[in-house]
């Protein structure tokens, strides 16, 4: 069996996926990235291999992606996260033409052509108010952990307006809303609406077109996808469960399978 691995070294979490030749996921793992990128890449891969019930030697080709991809000494090749995300998103949803990827420290929008290649992209990595870190910071300020954001916002009755264009001003609004007795769930809902507003503007800048696929750790909160649907006025694709966080790693592993087949074809032709 020819196994490939995709390792997505993100700014907040590192994800690894083990992929079989038929593109079925054999194993996956996720770890906080930290600052020792070479070590975290190896450790996350080892966990994914263990999850697959395989030995480390069974993985024949490794593709690294994400902001820390060049620090993954164990990889055979590195690709951009935009390229890997395009492959992963179109694997789950072949009709994908626009991707929104909201992570802890960055937000990206990209538009694809018919062959899943990136035609246009925009990044928002200058202000925390346009990233998942804003939601996490808002939750912590109100005394909630990141994993509590989903259940909390699910109880919201109405979003509280948060119009600040930067994280500092937005945080001041959160403080004011709390002092006025606003419900934490409604404040968190408002923070999500604010973040989605920025994401839709980013999508417009790439001249978005359907189908829309949403990926990234923040999209694991169901309310986030629902607000995007409402602002776009159309349906959106979201990979099921935790796969929304592993989409880019899946794409990297798919590229590994394709690269391995090409290398074998060249070798066979040479003999």
List strands and helices in order, with pairings.
Layout (H helix, E strand, L loop, with lengths): L2 E7 L3 E7 L5 E8 L4 H16 L6 E7 L11 E2 L2 H12 L5 E5 L4 E6 L5 E7 L7 H10 L7 H5 L13 H13 L4 H22 L6 E4 L6 H11 L10 H28 L1
Parallel strand pairs: 1-4, 4-5, 6-9
Antiparallel strand pairs: 1-2, 2-3, 6-7, 7-8
Helix pairs in contact: 2-8, 3-6, 6-7
Walk me through the structure.
The chain has eight helices and nine strands. By secondary structure, the protein is an alpha/beta fold. It folds into two domains: 3-84 and 246-270, 2-Layer Sandwich (Nucleotidyltransferase, domain 5), CATH 3.30.420.40; 94-238, ATPase, nucleotide binding domain (Nucleotidyltransferase, domain 5, 2-Layer Sandwich), CATH 3.30.420.40. The strands form two sheets. Strands 3-2-1-4-5 form a five-stranded mixed β-sheet. The protein has a four-stranded mixed β-sheet with strand order 8-7-6-9. Strand 1 (3-9) and strand 2 (13-19) form a beta hairpin. Helix 2 crosses helix 8, helix 3 packs antiparallel against helix 6 and helix 6 (184-205) crosses helix 7 (222-232). It is globular. It starts with a strand and ends with a helix.
